[in-house]
Structure prediction request, 271 residues.
Amino acid sequence: MNESCTLNELVLYLHNETSLLQTVEVQNAIDTDEEIAEVFDDLKKITGYITEISIRPAGALRESIINYARLSRGTK
Amino acid sequence: MCKLQVTDNELVACFIKGEESALQSLIIRHERKIYTSIYLMVKDRELADDIFQDTFIKVINKLRSGNYNEEGKFLSWVLRIAHNLVIDYFRSLKRMPLVHENEEYSIFDNLPLMDENIEDKIILEQVHKQIRQLIEELPYDQREVVIMRHFGNMSFKEIAEITNVSINTSLGRMRYALINLRKLIKDNAIYLSVS
Prediction:
């Protein structure tokens, strides 16, 4: 990783939290440095997978919450 | 009558007025992110079930008592409640996992190898399972940031405020988490085909 782009900046860029200036600098680093481009590509894939691993809770949980909401209506 | 395709805040308003179906819509809309966040923090399905229910009981009570003014941040608000309940749970057990970034931890030898000759769908499910296992094995501080950023859609600034650290620390934790995951994925020859 060269001085033109730190890992922190790359992580911020990955999460769309860079300033306009940082965005230009990081994008330039990705375009011109193969090592940075490779790291960025890997991190992008990893974060893509993170959001895909979600688990749905059992439907009964939702039912019991709704039942609580019904039964407790007016008691608060 | 409130419609289904409305904003979170409109559904919250409907629920406060007495329409339980609005709460159901909110739960259906966000349950995967909330439940997964809790599960990844506690790593136990039964405990995750309990905390998920307790979270929504608090949500219901807070909404009815007028303690919601988040304006468009319903999911983040619920995840903060869930996060606090998880912290309370660990404190009650006095076994809050306090593993820090600089400490050595042995997560590198805890991954099954993948069969390369199974069908795409099964491979994808396996990869998801492996990634989930890797995240579960991250130090708590790093896991927490990954969960809040990717499931709670919170900014690093918001995460820093909730976890009482600086923005640089929360950003650093995410950096460690992603670099650790990258190393583990490479070490274990997990092929990530989706960018």
